[in-house]
Amino acid sequence: MMFFSIRDVTYLYYSLSIFFLSQLHAVIIPDFGFYAKEVFVWLKYYPPGKGATFPLASVVIIFHLLFIRGFINLKERHPKLNKYNNYMIWLLAVASLLLSLSNQSTLIYFPLFIIAYLYSLHVSIYSWHKGFKPSSFLIIGSLFLTIGVSIVLLAGLNIIDLRFNLAVFRSDNLGFISFYMFLSFALGDKINVLTREKAEAQEKALEELEVKVQERTAELAHEKQLVEEKQKDILDSIRYAKRIQTSLMPNEKYLSGIFGRRKK
Q1: Domain total for the chain?
Q2: Does 124 have pLDDT greater than 80?
């Protein structure tokens, strides 16, 4: 709804990230997948196996990074970070394709996923430090998301022996829930910032327009004064020429006398 109303592709990335996250959970969580496959019927034909989840996980992270890029507007605000963000997206896409075909172990995938989420957290902190206020909520959400996902991934790598669950929710589920909750505040804050910036831009445009109108009015008044001065000079020249012409030509009485004598 926000994408079609605002026409900002960032919100399409946001929606696709959530959509593919639901697809991922339907594949890796049997109880959820049992019911989800009745809605997303194509999941019934999705190849089973742990390695088959990596492409879906990569797509989730790719759309997450695309959303972060658009939300913060990295291309204009931080071009260097935007370049690294694009490298990360391409790396995930290529690695997911190659490694899923070769059926490699999680030792390659999981560190890459952790790095991607840590990078999105770094981008959020950096943009907030540079004055982009909506990133404050994004930092909190990204922090919960990075910690929650990293716990699951590090446990999958047998680096830590930690399983954190709250009811039926794992730490990565809680991380995503927290991220999208704080993201809603960030979205609202960004809309407020955009509204304020738009009002300030309109006010500044009106002020600039008023200054231009005043400058143009002054220019017209000056041009009018110049025209009036030129007109006065021309009229004075005409009067002066007329006086010279009048002084050089004989008067009517003199001409009448000459013509009268010639007539006689």
Answers
A1: 2
A2: yes
Residue 15: count of CB within 10 angstroms of its CB: 15
The string over 46-58, giving b where at least 16 C-beta atoms fall within 10 Å of a residue's C-beta and e elsewhere, is: beeeebebbbbbb
Per the structure block, which two tokens stand in for 15? Answer: 């929606």
The answer to whether 75 and 64 have CB atoms below 8 angstroms apart is no
The boundaries of the domain holding residue 211 are 207-263
Q: State if pTM tops 0.70.
A: no
- Identify whether the C-beta of residue 141 lies closer than 8 Å to the C-beta of residue 134: no
Q: Give the model confidence (pLDDT) of 220-261 as tens digits.
A: 888 888 888 888 888 878 877 777 776 666 666 665 666 666
Specify whether the CB–CB gap between 67 and 41 falls below 8 A.
no
Rounded CA separation 83/188 (Å): 27
Both 31 and 96 in one domain: the answer is yes
Question: Distance (Å, rounded) from C-alpha 264 to C-alpha 261?
Answer: 5
Same domain, 27 and 126: yes
Least confident stretch, 128-132, 138-142, 194-198, 247-251: 247-251
Q: How far is CA 214 from the centre of its chain?
A: 34
Rounded Cα gap, residues 64 and 123, in angstroms: 12
Asked if residue 75 is part of any domain, the answer here is yes
Report the pLDDT value the prediction gives residue 253, as an integer from 0 to 100. 64
Query: Same domain for 127 and 170?
Result: yes
64 and 100 in one domain?
A: yes
